[in-house]
Write a structure and sequence with these properties.
By secondary structure, the chain is an alpha+beta fold. It is built from five helices and five strands.
C-alpha cells in the first residue's frame, strides 16, 4: 500500500538518481523501478532483485528463466492493468528502440534509466503497466 507521502518519496528517488549512469545490477531499469516502488510502498523489491542478479549476464539469465521481462515483473507485481488506467507512480514496460525496458509513469511520460542518467519517454511507447497502490 502506498504511503501517504509517496509522491515526495518517489521524486526523492528520481532526484537522487537523475545523473546516475546505467549499470547492470547497480542501476538498471528493473532496479530503478523496484527502488521507486520500495520508496512509495515500503516494500523490498530492490533487495530481492539484487539477490537474483549482479551483472548483465546474470540479469539476462534471470529474465530468461521467466521467458521475458513482463513475466518476471508479473511474478512480483501480478497481472498488468489496462494501459488506460495507468497513473503516476505505476510501473510501465515500454519499447525503448526495440528493447523492452521498465520505468515509472509520471503522467504523460515514463522515467527510466539511460546511459548517463535518467531519461523520459512518452507514454505512447508503453506496452503494459502495473498498478502501484
Amino acid at each position: 500500500m502506498k504511503r501517504y507521502d509517496w509522491t515526495r518519496r518517489l521524486y526523492d528517488v528520481i532526484e537522487a538518481h537523475r545523473e546516475a549512469a546505467f549499470g547492470w545490477g547497480e542501476h538498471d531499469c528493473c532496479l530503478f523501478a523496484a527502488r521507486c516502488v520500495d520508496a512509495m510502498c515500503d516494500t523490498e523489491y530492490e533487495a530481492g532483485l539484487q539477490a537474483e542478479y549482479q551483472d548483465e549476464s546474470s540479469a539476462m539469465e534471470y529474465i530468461a528463466s521467466f521467458g521475458s521481462i513482463k513475466s518476471a515483473v508479473k511474478s512480483w507485481l501480478g497481472e498488468p492493468q489496462n494501459l488506460a488506467f495507468t497513473q503516476r507512480g505505476d510501473v510501465v514496460l515500454f519499447d525503448n528502440d526495440g528493447r523492452e525496458t521498465l520505468g515509472i509513469c509520471l503522467g504523460r511520460d515514463i522515467v527510466s534509466t539511460g546511459e548517463t542518467g535518467l531519461e523520459s519517454v512518452s507514454m505512447t511507447k508503453a506496452i503494459c503497466s502495473w498498478a502501484v497502490r
